[in-house]
Amino acid sequence: MKYIIACLFLFSLSLTGISQTPTALKQIKGGTLAPLYGLDSGKVWVDDFQLDEFAVTNQQYLDFVEKYPEWQKSKVKSIFADGNYLVDWQGDLQLGKGMNSNSPITNVSWFAAKAYCACQDKRLPSVDEWELAAKASESNPNAEYDSLFNQRIIESYETPNTYAKTVGSTYKNFWGVSDMHGLVWEWTSDFNSVLISGESRQDGDADRNLFCAGAAITASNLRDYAAFMRYAFRGSIKADYNIRNLGFRCAKSK
Amino acid sequence: MNYQIVSKIVKILTLGTVISLAGCSGSGHENRENSMDIKTQGSMTAQLTSPPYVPEPIGSRPAKQLIVDMEIVEEEGQMANGVSYMYWTFGGTVPGSFIRTRVGDEVEFTLKNHPNNKLPHNIDLHAVTGPGGGASSSFVAPGHEITFSFKTLNPGLYVYHCATAPVGMHIANGMYGLILVEPAGGLSKVDKEFYIMQGDFYTKGKNGDPGLQPFDMQKAIDEHADYVVFNGSTNALTGDNAITAEVGETIRLYVGNGGPNLSSAFHVIGEIFDKVYVEGGSLINHNVQTTMIPAGGAAIVEFKVEAPGTLVLVDHAIFRAFNKGALGMLKVTGEENPTVYSGTIQEGIYQPEGGSIQTMPGDQGAPEAPVAGSVSERIEMGKRIYARTCLACHQEEGQGIPNAFPPLAKADYLNADVERAIGIVLHGLTGEITVNGNNYNSVMTAQTLTDEQVANVLTYVYNSWGNNGTEVTPIMVTKVKSSH
C-alpha cells in the first residue's frame, strides 16, 4: 500500500507534462443496476459518470511509458506486474513485431492501468459502472434482456485473438462508447470485490464462489452467461497479472 | 396378537439391516483408511494420452508421487464435415487427456492456461476427495499455471471437467475427460484398451449447417442437442479413425459421458459386454447388452471379439446415433467362425398370402392412385398389377400350372361369366372347378385391390392370350361387390 501511495504521489507531481492525445470521455447516465453478484441481493445505484470512448491503445501506452520510465518493461517493480508485463514488446520503447499501434494495450497489470488513468486525471471504472455502460446495445441503454445482443456477446467472448483488432472496430453503443464487448476484457478498479464480499456458499471465505453449479447460488440472472464469464474472469485474476486478452479504459466522476 | 408377531419380525429385520449396513460402511471406511495409509515410493511423470488411446497399465508398480501436467487450449476443431466449433480442451483434445493412476498415488497436478485463451478455467476431478474436487484450488487465469495435489483413495473410473461459471458452457464446449484409479496390482490383463467419451453439443445452426458454429445458450438450457458424438466429433471413431482389433482379442473400453445434459445408453451393435464395471465402480455385472452412463459418469466394459466384421458403437437412444453423430466403429479382422455367426446361409423369395397393398399409417393417407382414362391405359395398368399379383400362379402367358393353377389364356371358365370372374378376384375361390376340360381343386385367396385395380387387371386378362376382349369398368366391380 505504501508503494502505491508513493507511486501515485510521484504521478501527481509529474501530471503537468502529459503529451498524449487523451481519449474522449462519453457521458453515461447513472441508474440502478442488478449486479450478477454483489453485497446485497438487491440493486445498486450508480451515479452519472464519464467513460473513455475507446480502450487505451498500444500507442497511447507507449507514450505513457516514455513519459514514466518506471512503467517500462525492464524497470517495472515486480510487485506491480508479474513476468508477463508487456511480454510481447521487443523493448522498453518498442512494440512487438506485427503489433498494431491502434490495437488495445494488453498484458498490463491492474497497478499499471490504475497509474495510467491517474496520469490522465482519470481513474478506472468500478465493476458496477463498467457493467452499467456495457449493458447498452447500439440502440438501447439496457439490453440485458435482449437475447440476440446477449448471444452476440457470448459469441464474441468465444472468438479468439480479438485483442489484435483495432479499437473502434466492433460496435458503438447507446452512450457512444465503443468495443465494450468483442475486443478485450477490461480492468476495473474493484475487480476482485466479489470474491471478498462473502456472498456465496461459504460466507467470508475468499475464493470459493464461482465453481460448478454453486455459482448459480445468489446470482441475479442465471441466463446472463456473458456476465458469468466476466465475473469468472475477474475472479481468476490478481492485480499483478498481465494477460493477453485483458486491457482497460479509464473513467471519470462527473 | 398378530400385530405383536409382525412387529417382532419387523424389529428383527430392522436389527439385521442395521447390522449389515454397519458392516458395509465399516468395510468401506476401512478400505479408504487403508488407501490413506499407502506410502508412496519415488515419483514419476504421468503418461497422458489423447483419445481413443490410454496409457500403459499400472501393473504391479507401487504407489508413487505422480506428476500430471495438463494444458488448457481453446481451439477451433472439426465437429462434422464442413462444420467447425470453438472447442475448449484439456490437453488439446475432446475428451481431454486420459490420466491413469493407482490407488494410493499422490498426484501433483499442474494446470496451465494457455496465454491465447480468453477465459479462466479450473478442473474438478471426481476422483478427488476434497472441496470442489480440486476446482477451488485450480482456478487459473489465461497465461498462468497452478499446482495442487491429491491422494487417490477410491479405485474406479472417474470423470474430470471444468467447473468455472457458467459451468454448463465450459462442459458443453468439450472440457471433460477421464481419470482411472486402478486398484493395487492393477486391473486384469486384456489385449486392447480404448478411451471413448460421449458429449452433447449445442450450435447456433442446425445439425449439418456449415461453417464455424458458435455455442447456443438457449438450446443448451432447453437440452436440445444438435450433435451427440463420441470423442468430440462425428467422425472421431469412424472410417479411417475406427478402432481395430483381431478376432479372439479381449477388449476393454473406458467409456465416459461428459454430458452436459444427456445420459448415454451405451451399446455396441453385434456384441454383448461380458463384463461391465457398473458406473465405473467396483460392482461387476455380466452379459450386458446396453449400459447406462449418466452425464458426469463412466463405465468400464469388457468383451471378447469372436467374429470378424465392424462393430458399431452407439448411444442406443437411437436418433442420436442416426441423426446426431453418436456413432463409432470397431473393426475386427480375422478368421470367420461360422459357429459363432454364420452369415447368410440361404436367400429366397418371400410371398405372404393375401396382401398386395399395404396400408400405411398416417394422416395424409396413401398418395392418390392413378385412374385409367382409356381401355389401352386400363390394359397397361392392369398388366402391372397382373405381374405383381397374379403372375406367380397363373404364369406370364396366363397358361397356369397343370393340376395346380388353372389357365387364364383362352379359358372358357373366364370368358363365360365376367361377374363371376370379378367376384373371384374380390373374394377368392375355394373348391373344384373345370377349366378347358381339366379339373382344378385349389385355393385362390381374396385380393386386396381397389375397384379400379380389379377392373384394370381383369381388362388386361380379357384382352390378352386369345380371350374375348371384355372391358371391365370400376363400376362393374363396385356392383359385384355390393351384390350378395
From TrEMBL, chain A:
Residues 44-252 form the Sulfatase-modifying factor enzyme-like domain. GO terms for molecular function: formylglycine-generating oxidase activity. Keywords: Signal. Residues 1-19 form the signal peptide. This is Formylglycine-generating enzyme required for sulfatase activity. It comes from Algoriphagus ratkowskyi.
From TrEMBL, chain B:
The keyword RNA-binding does not apply. Residues 377-465 form the Cytochrome c domain. Its EC number is 1.7.2.1. PROSITE patterns: CYTC. InterPro entries: Cu-oxidase-like_N, Cupredoxin, Cyt_c-like_dom, Cyt_c-like_dom_sf, Cytochrome_c-type_DH, NO2-reductase_Cu. PANTHER family: ALCOHOL DEHYDROGENASE CYTOCHROME C SUBUNIT, BLL4482 PROTEIN-RELATED. Belongs to the multicopper oxidase family. Homotrimer. This is Copper-containing nitrite reductase. It comes from Algoriphagus ratkowskyi. The lineage of its organism: Bacteria, Pseudomonadati, Bacteroidota, Cytophagia, Cytophagales. The gene is nirK.
